[in-house]
Task: structure prediction
Amino acid sequence: MSLLAIKKLSLDIGMTPILRDVSLSIPKGKIFGLAGESGAGKSMTALSIMGLLPHAAITRGTIALDGDDLLSKSERQMCAVRGQHVGMVFQEPMSALNPLHTIGAQVAETVIVHERVSRAEAFERAAQMLDRVGLSPAHIPMDRFPHELSGGQRQRVMIAMAMVLRPKLIIADEPTTALDVTAQAQILDLLRRLVDEDGVSLMLITHDLAVMAQMADDLAIMHRGKIIESGPTPALLRGLNHDYSKTLLKSTALRPMRVPHEIAKDSPILEARNIVCRYEKSDFRAVDDVSLSINKGENVGLVGESGCGKSTLLRALLALRAPQEGEILLRGKPFTPGANVHSKAQRKDIQMVFQDPYGSFNPRHKVSRLVAEPFHLDGKKRTGAERRAAVVEMLQRVGLSAADADKYPHQFSGGQRQRIAIARALITRPSLVALDEAVSALDVTARAKVLALLADLSDDLGVSFLFVSHDLGVVRAICDRVLVMRGGKIVEDGSVEAVFAQPRHPYTKALIAATPDLETALAAREDCPA
Result:
């Protein structure tokens, strides 16, 4: 018997149709996957189940939990359902958690709201649940605040909040998108274990088909508010019929074709020699004696789990902080904050694409002004027409149109905003562009398009890229060489093919093993059917 049954669910917000005739069912004790690109309707389906839709939403159809229609319930009745019968793990725990309350208080609050128990008993149950999800109060005190935890630990707190009352259904909306591969593997293992031990049902929402192949018993693929294909996961992924589904599968394993090119190794663009970065008033080395070089036309990946020192090293390489020891050279000249030789000309030669382009744009400015911002670095005087022509040319290079120059950032999708960020980084024709988790928040189709774009730009413009990422799939798809970082040190450095085919360091082997792989997951499911 199905725990959750959705039949012909349609949703409009104002005059805009969002969902159309969505039907699905989730059996008890099973994992159901809902996949699709951004805007497909996955999250709106989840919010419909939770009764968290905006006031302008109009729904039709039925959502039955154990035979009880949720759409017919009042807000007061739904407050009793949320947490008690249905728990939700949101995509971004830092936004979902209250920054003013401790983690213990937030998990205990769920118990206090739904059950008549003392505060002491609620905190005791919170401690037990935190211990179950790997946050033992003996090691991670319950009086910690969310900002004091890592991304993976915050996600465990969200899971504890969702599970503390042992609900019948858990909805996990992109629970591992922003996590490194080791943290992602741990969270997925935790969710699987809780399903097996407690017999709850799990609705897993993600755009990553490799994760679906590894986790989901049944899978549905959404496109433009409709479910276009569904069925048992291995059989469905082996026999996709819809063109969109095939595109989604192809995008998961995309490796852009690059023109064979020779990398000039005799004149590095960027060099770091014996870099050491310490925190103030501490002997802890976030970056510990790191040396590296990036050559002209070379794409280099820097990978490692959260806290390994990637971001600290990147800030030093970009001259946003000074290392305590060692030196950094940009085209053979010192490149550190405050150095006499440090100039706008050097800044022009190295640019940055951030993880969240929306956060790096001024929302009050049009794209034409945002893309033209770096022009102040080259010192050239341009007329308004010349600036406009240069911006339009670069927008067209990254796959946008001239008309997009007159729009604001909020008028674009995530993938389009990332293209704007790339255009801004390339407008001064730099030698090196650093990308910090630049595609981690994109769905697989948008990510595939952006990676193909970057491969083309690297070949056409001769620019080098430094990819800082926790996603080994991205690094393998676009890079020539990969640096593996752990504990502040570079533990492995080699060509992408050599490192992935025969990793030498145990940590590199663990990273590769933790990375979800579609074919490996499908083969394992087919060899050991549930």
